[in-house]
Every structure is written in structure tokens, then in C-alpha cells.
Amino acid sequence: MPGDTNLLFATPVLVEEVREPDLAKELEEVILARRAEHPGLQRSNVGGWHSDDGFLQWGGEPARRLLDKVFELANSATVAKGADTAFKWFAQGWANVIEAGASNAPHVHPGCFWSAVFYVRVDRGTGGELILRDPRSPTMEMHAPSLWFANAGVQREGSIKPAEGMLVLFPSWINHWVTPWHGNGLRISVAINLSAKPA
Q1: Cβ atoms of 38 and 97 closer than 8 Å
Q2: Could you tell me which residues are beta bridge partners of residue 162?
Q3: Does residue 141 form part of some domain?
Q4: pLDDT tens per residue, range 45-55
Q5: Which domain holds residue 126?
Q6: For residue range 7-25, what is the model confidence (pLDDT) as tens digits?
Q7: 127 domain-assigned
């Protein structure tokens, strides 16, 4: 009879539907207005438009409402070590607008604890998945690329298909990227990083 299986070193990835269509619409308006005024930055984006990191300021009241939801989700999945430990979240955010063929190259968000992405608009098309890759994967693949752990859930690489109103929260150290998106419209998202400082 096999012994008990203990799944250690779990990696939390939270996916939540934000049921506020007005929020997405208001965010879309402010993001597209910003894109019309600013050329954007080159970061992990391959094509598409990447705003400056001041989204939480220029995004106004809709950005603050989204940030409240990110804080709420992060608080539900975070505990402080020790009863006397207190912390405060510091946030930074930006917007992404991609059209057909655009993607994001693999990257991590150093210096942060949680990273979030909220999908404001996802027009019909294929691709554009958020890929999350376990940084331990190369070690496993070098030794036994054809073996997987039994009953251990998603391993090595997970894929999340975006949908309007979806909020995803994941540890910032996870290597992630976005596959090329192919559609006739736009895919608009907001990314937010949370770092924790002593309160």
C-alpha cells in the first residue's frame, strides 16, 4: 500500500472574475486615451503598446478601484510570519494594448511579491495566452524530460486563456510570457506589481 503523498512547495496562482463591466469600460477609455497621447515604452512587449509605470496615477478612479480588488485578492492569499509582523503593500502598474501578432517575451518582475494582470478587453482571436513556467523545470528536464510526477497537478508550464474581467495573481518570481495574439481587434490588459514593506 503506498504511503501518503505530501505536495510541498506549492505555487499559488489565483484567478478571479471581476463582475463589474463598467470598470472594464472605464479602464478601456482611460487607457486608449493615454495611448493616443504617449508613444509608450519598450519592455517585455514584442509589438503592441506598453504604457509608462504611472498607470495608478493617470488611471484615476477606475485604476484605484482595480487596485482595491488586487489588494483584496492579495490579502486573501498572504499571511504575515509571526503575530508581531505587519506589512503594507506598495503598488506599481502599467497598461498593455496589443494588436495582431504582438506578444510579450519571457520575463520576471524582480523586487516584488505578487504580480497581477487584469484583462480589460479581449476581442475574438487565437493565442494571447499567459504562460507561467516553473523555474525548477530545467533541472527536471535535463535528467528525465519524459517523466512527470503523478497526481501533482500542473507541472513545469501552465497556460491561462485570457477573458474580459479576469484577474490573475501570481508570485512575481515566476517566469511568464504572452504568446502571440491573432485577432482583428485589441487585447487590453493592466499589470500591477505589489511589494511589501514593513508597516
Answers
A1: no
A2: none
A3: no
A4: 999 999 999 99
A5: 14-77+88-134+156-198
A6: 899 899 999 999 998 999 9
A7: yes
CATH number of the domain residue 22 falls in = 2.60.120.620
Amino acid, res. 159: S
- Assigned domain for 128 exists: yes
State the Cα–Cα distance between residues 170 and 75, nearest whole angstrom: 13
Length of the chain in residues, anyone? 199
Full 3-state SS string of 125-186: EEECCEEEECCCHHHHHHHCCCCCCCCCCCCCEEEECCCCCEEEEEECCCEEEECCEEECCC
Cell 499589470 appears where? 191
H-run or E-run covering 92:
strand 87-98
| Grid cell locating 190 | 493592466
Longest dimension (CA), the chain: 66
